[in-house]
Each structure stands twice: as C-alpha cells, then as structure tokens.
Amino acid sequence: MSVRTLPLLFLNLGGEMLYILxxxxxxxxxxxxKARKVLNDxxxxxxxxxxxxxxxxxxxxxxxxxxRTVYDRLAHASIMRLNxxxxxKLYDLMTxxxxxxVLLCPRPRDVLLVTFNHLDAIRGFIQDSPTILQQVDETFRxxxxxxxxxxxxxxxxxxxxxxxxxxxxHIRVSIFLKDRVQNSNGRFxxxxxxxxxxxxxVPGLIRMFNRKGEEVRKAEFKHGGNYVAAPKEGSFELYGDxxxxxxxxxxxxxxxxxxxxxxxxxxxxxxxxxxxxPNPLAKEELNLLARLMGGMEIKKPSGPEPxxxxxxxxxxxxxxxxxxxxxxxxxxxxxNIQATQxxxxxxxxxxIMGEFEVMDQPRRITSxxxxxxxxxxxL
Amino acid sequence: MFRPGRSIPLRGSAAALCNNLSVLQxxxxxxxxxxxxxxxxxLSAAPEGVPLVQRQLHAKxxxxxxxxxxxxxxxxxxxxxxxxxxxSHPEIQMYKSDGSVMVYWHALDSGxxxxxxxxxxxxxxxxxxxxxxxxxxxxxxxxxxxxxxxxIVLSEEPAGHQTPVTDIATEPAQGQPLRxxxxxxxxxxxxxxxxxRN
Lengths: 379, 198
Hints:
Radius of gyration of chain A: 23 Å
Pfam families (chain A): Oscp1
Organism (chain B): Vicugna pacos
Shape of chain A: globular
Protein name (chain B): WD repeat-containing protein 54-like isoform X1
Number of helices of chain A: 13
Helix content of chain A: 40-55%
Organism (chain A): Vicugna pacos
Strand order of the largest sheet of chain B: 1-2-3-4
InterPro entries (chain B): WDR54_beta_prop
Oligomer: heterodimer
Shape of chain B: globular
Structural class of chain B: mainly beta
Number of strands of chain B: 15
C-alpha cells in the first residue's frame, strides 16, 4: 500500500465534485455571483495551506466513509446546503468518475496528468481571485515535488492502492452509459483502439534474441485491435498541454448527471471488510481525520447572505425518492464506528463523533483527548 | 483465434493488475490463483470447469502497515515440488501448492527505503531449484528450495537495477538445469538478462 496516495485521491475527487456542483448550479439557475461565491469558498478551503500540509504527509488511505465525511464538510464550506440524498449522489458520481480515470490511464504515471487536468480546470473557476490562484499554484508545485521523480514502479503501487479503494464499486452513471464507456453491468469498457501509452510500441511484432543479446528473428502477429503510436507526451509543467483527456470536465448544462443504483451485489462476502467488521483502527482513523480537518478553515455563513439548497436531482420528489430507495450496502453513514468493548472508550468515541455534527456547538474541552478536540475547528 | 469456454465464478473480484492470473495443471485438476486486493483467491476446478475448492489467503500485517496489498500470486513448479508464492507490500510468503500450509515467510528488508517508499515485491519465477522474486529496490531475491521441508534459504540478492522490478521470467537451458537465464522486466522498458553464476 503506497503512503503517497491520499493527495491524488483527494484532489481528483475534489475536482470532480467541483465539475458536478458547477453543472448543477447552472442547471438550477443559481445567480452567477452566488454560484461563484460557492465555488470560490470550496476551492479556497480545499487548497488551504495548513490543510494541504496535512494532506501531503505520508499516510495510508482513509476508508470510503471517512473520506466522505471530509467531502461532506467541504461541500458545506459555503452558503450552499445539500440534502443527504444529493450528497450521496454527488459522492457516487465523484468516485465513479475518478475510478474510470485511474482505470483508463495509459500509464500509471498518467494519473498525475489527470490531477493536473483537474487543477487546470480549477484555475479556470477562480480566475478572478489571485489569492486562491496562488494557493492552487502552490499545490501544483507540491505535487511536482512529491511525485515528479517517482519511478514507474512506485506509480504502479499508487495505482494499485487507488484501485483497491474503488474495488467492487459498480454504480452506473448515465453519462458513461450513453458514451458507451460503461456497460449495463457497471463495468468500464477498455478500449482496443487508439494511441498506445507514451513510450510503448504499437503491438504486433515479436523479436527474438540470441544468448548474446543480438536480434536474430522477427515475427508479426494480428491482435485484433486498432492501435496507433502516441502523438506526444503530456506536459508535467505548471502550464502545458496535458494531451490526455481524462480528468477534464465532461459535464455541461445539457447533460444531466444521473446515477442508477446497480442491483445489490450478489456476493456480500466480496464487500470490503470495513463495511461488516468493526474497524479496530477506527480511533486512529478519527485522529488522522481530525488532524486533516483541523487544517480546514470553514467560514461561517456571515452577513445577510442567505443560504440555498442545491439539488443533485431534477426535482425535489426525485431526491426524496432516491433517499428512500438507496440500497443498504451503498449507504454512506458518516463514520459508522462500532466501538467494541470499553465503556469509557465508547463514550469518548461518541463525544468525538458528536463534534463532527455540522451545527453551532460550543467547543467542549474534556480531560481525555484534549489535543484531538483542540485540533477541530468550531463550526 | 480462441473461443470462450465455460466460466467459473470466483468468490470475489479480481484486482485490476497486469497478468493477474496464475494457473497450475496438476494431474487432472486445474488450479487458479487471482489477487483480489487484500487477499489472494485460489480455486481448484475439475475437468469441464466444475469448481471444487475455494480458498483465500491474506498477507500478514507488518509493523505499521494496516492493510497490506497483495501484488502477485504465482505457482512455482520446481523439480521435486510445487510451491505457491505470494508477494505483497511488506513480505513474501510461500505455501504448499494447495495453499493449506505456509512453509516460509520473508519480510522484505526496508534497507535504504525512506519512510515513504513502498517496500514491495513483484515478479516471481522458478529456475531449477530456485525461486526468484523481484523487489522494490531493484534487487532479485533468489531462494534455494530443498526437495521437501521448510528449510528455505535466501541464497543471493543480485543487484544491478536502479528501479523496482515488476516482472521476471526464466528459461531452462537445454540439458543444463543449473545454467539458467533469468530475464527481468523493469518499468522503464529495459529487459536485462542475467545468467546463473554456476
């Protein structure tokens, strides 16, 4: 398991979230200045220096539920509110989109280009805010510093870690189904045509070498695909043509985003362990999460600016219906910790859980876990 | 070219890794090994694809690693026995061919790895009575396997690669089982070839 995977996971999922929110804000005809404020607030929170510092520390990936908590908080960093059903749908879309991008990356290293595509688009959202722009550029530099010199083998490890996070998730997304990049069983389609990864040859040739390493024979074979050489390598610079389209914005106002809950998976045994067994590392995960979110500065809704509710569905009725019919195994309860034995520990965990509520609560300092609580922001 | 035969369902999904399937033909049974993620799945099937036994193997949790990912599962056919080898993030495990008993376990040496480098192994091949495993450090671990029993020894660790080894293949030389060539694949496309010193 690579300990450098979290920044890539977080930034790309965050990028997808912004694409979807931008599309919904326009589809719901939210006034331009309000929409811009929402995106600015979220982006500014995402790229906060302290938050980024925590994010880039070498650490293992969080569980899906723990990460969902972070995005829940991020989505509410501004005057916008989302109901549970809309937040669920948002997270489904985000995860399936990034899963698709990682799976389809020609080389493991190309996940960095996907990340840069997201950041390029984010720059577009905040063109009028030089301070936030600077934060994004700083993150670019941090990405280059952290990942620029990694070998292909290390990127392969990162890729495997990312894909294990998404394993067995087969939610069908209407945009993917329409574009035929996803089958009706929720699996993605691997292309058998198009450019080969940069640095590799078009298949079709077998070369045979003797013991001295000299080429002695060639043979050709038919592979049934239709591949061409890669035209050029994507740029890893601060600005440049990334070449790769994965990670660019595929949503527009005219392409509504729908998900279809795929039928309950036939094999409950194949579910990741976290959903069934109590997680013995729950407390450790909460500590990590607290440090991460402690770095998040959430602005309180200030002044006369009224909040508004964003709906990821076309109507309110649809949203209600989705909440009622969501399959059990796909429910994202905000950190469902099953504390096992200790009564004292149960109380402590319950208290920490309480701190995650998005409400105005006075900060409680207790003797146990002072530093943990101290790290959390007032909401 | 090929026609699909009968499908055999596995208990869990296969991880999206390259070449994630190892097959062993033993007498009239076919054994399949697939990496799921945190576990490796073994399935034995009778002729006509009738599934018989399924088993799951897990990587051990090393110090500081809570969820070790398995990188490869592969059967090694040696002159006197068959061993099942599992490589994962912190270690190499070897089992009897049916996966029932672990006969050997080797923790990968973090050595010069900085805290953030993923210490892992990938690339498994049998060569005579040796099993070769590629490591993150670019080294190849060569294990000397006795005809039976758990007395397996790490006999050498030839270096020479600067980047992680991702795959290994071996070729038996005609009539000279001890003079084997080993081919290692590295992620940058290089294919160095090494010869056994014996």
